[in-house]
Specification:
This protein is mainly alpha-helical. Helices cover 77% and strands 0% of the residues. It has two domains: 67 residues; 58 residues, no CATH class. The radius of gyration is 48 Å and the shape is rod-shaped.
Length: 167
């Protein structure tokens, strides 16, 4: 009964010895051979670490290049956006009437004549307010309508809403 147990013990000790030698290839060496083996192990570990560092550096270089490309794309998109905004601004200003904003149209001969023909303007609050609001709406709807045709359109709308009465 002891013999099978002894055989198993010997086998397990031999297996442990083999796995220990695989874990530490320098196990069992002495003096200069042990020093040489440990030096070789350290050299291999250093080489592996250097390879890992080199791989990390290469990956960082790739990431930096990708970041640079993305930044270039963003810059290009910003420039395109600015160019499109400028183009839209030019197109909008080209479609709007060329009226200078600071001009006082109430003193032009056309407006003076129109006011003399429409004495309610400035004296009849309801008609004046309606005409002013309609003028703003008409400018938005028909920016091409200017001058006397614009003023006549206002008069026609006031007459349509309030009836044709002269003051």
């Amino acid at each position: 009964m002891i013999k099978p147990f002894l055989g198993a013990f010997v086998l397990s000790a031999l297996a442990g010895s083999i796995s220990a030698q695989q874990a530490d290839p320098c196990n069992g060496l002495a003096d200069s051979a042990l020093a040489q083996c440990r030096g070789d192990q350290q050299k291999r570990q250093l080489e592996r670490l250097q390879q890992q560092v080199q791989q990390q550096q290469e990956r960082q270089i790739q990431l930096d290049e990708q970041q640079r490309q993305i930044q270039q794309q963003l810059d290009s998109m910003r420039q395109q956006n600015e160019a499109l905004r400028a183009q839209v601004g030019r197109e909008q200003s080209a479609t709007q009437p060329g009226r200078p904003p600071s001009t006082d149209y109430s003193k032009t001969p056309e407006v003076r004549t129109w006011r003399s023909e429409n004495p309610w303007f400035g004296s009849d609050y309801a008609k004046t307010e309606f005409a002013t609001r309609y003028a703003k709406q008409l400018q938005q709807e028909r920016p091409d309508l200017v001058g006397r045709p614009f003023l006549d359109a206002i008069s026609a709308k006031v007459d349509e809403n309030f009836g044709r009465k002269k003051q």
